[in-house]
Amino acid sequence: MDQTTSIDTIRAAATALADAARTAPDAAVPSCPGWTISTVLEHLGRVQMWASGVLRDYPTERPPFPPSPGDLTGDGLVAWASAQSDALVAAVAASDGDREVWAFGAMRPARFWWRRQAIEAAMHAWDAADAAGRVFPIPAPVGVEGVDEFLDWLLARLFAAKPPTWGSGRTIHLHRTDGEGEWLLTIADPPQVALGHAKGDLAVRGTATDLLLWVANRRADVTLFGDDGLAGAWAANVRF
């Protein structure tokens, strides 16, 4: 993901989150059980404060996660979170995408964080907007990058922590309907991913955005073919 896409996505997500937080700060967020919109806003603000430091300082080890902003509520919490988003945008814009930086136990180019933070912001903007009865339209290019990231990196971390005994060896084919993009996932530890057309035990068809929402266990407008049991097992065991 390039800097412009990352910055535009983070900015749009910040606006959507702030609007949702002003509208219904205490509304429960179904896709983040136990959280309210205010909880999502605070969580993302802390993540963005943390990521800003990573892109500013290029650490070689995991930096400490920032503390809670305290008792901020209402407009105060929105203003604090907006400041963290602005700081992250500035850090993305000023960072060298090719410079190596700590990234979850490995050294990776700093552009890893451009994509990671854009997807994180977009997903949580969707969560908050949905809880407020609104829609945050995740752009299709971000949806594609999100599916790639989820299958290529996040899923391996999830499966390493909790091996997928519920579907080992089974396959899921994701087929994008609004442009090019097909993935075949073999459930294993680590997961195996191949690009291109193939037949899976379960086929999932939808737009890039809806495929991202589906793999991340959100409400998505997709069509399923094949093993409904595997779809249910995914919903019960995989969460972003």
Features:
Four Helix Bundle (Hemerythrin (Met), subunit A), two-stranded antiparallel ribbon, Nonspecific Lipid-transfer Protein, Chain A, 7 helices, alpha+beta, 240 residues, 2 domains
A few lines on this structure:
The protein is an alpha+beta fold. It has helices at residues 3-23, 37-57, 74-94, 111-131, 140-161, 208-215, 228-237; strands at residues 100-102, 107-109, 171-176, 182-186, 192-195, 202-206, 223-226. Helix 4 packs across helix 5 (140-161) and helix 5 packs parallel to helix 6.
Q: How would you summarize the topology of this molecule?
A:
Layout: H1 3-23, H2 37-57, H3 74-94, E1 100-102, E2 107-109, H4 111-131, H5 140-161, E3 171-176, E4 182-186, E5 192-195, E6 202-206, H6 208-215, E7 223-226, H7 228-237
Parallel strand pairs: 3-6
Antiparallel strand pairs: 1-2, 3-4, 4-5, 6-7
Radius of gyration computed on alpha carbons: 18 Å
CATH superfamily of the largest domain: dinb family like domain
Integer tally of domains: 2
CATH secondary-structure class of the largest domain = Mainly Alpha
- Principal-axes shape call: globular
Could you tell me the strand content as a percent range?
A: 5-15%
Structural class, by secondary structure, is: alpha+beta
Average predicted confidence as pLDDT: 96
> Span from first to last CA?
20 Å
- Element order, helices and strands? HHHEEHHEEEEHEH
**Overall strand count:** 7
Which blocks of ≥5 consecutive residues have pLDDT under 50? none
- Give the neighbour order of strands across the main sheet: 5-4-3-6-7
* Tally of helical segments: 7
What is the CATH topology classification name of the largest domain?
A: Four Helix Bundle (Hemerythrin (Met), subunit A)
CATH architecture of the largest domain: Up-down Bundle
Q: Biggest sheet, open or closed, and with what strands and sense?
A: 5 strands, mixed
Helical content band: 40-55%
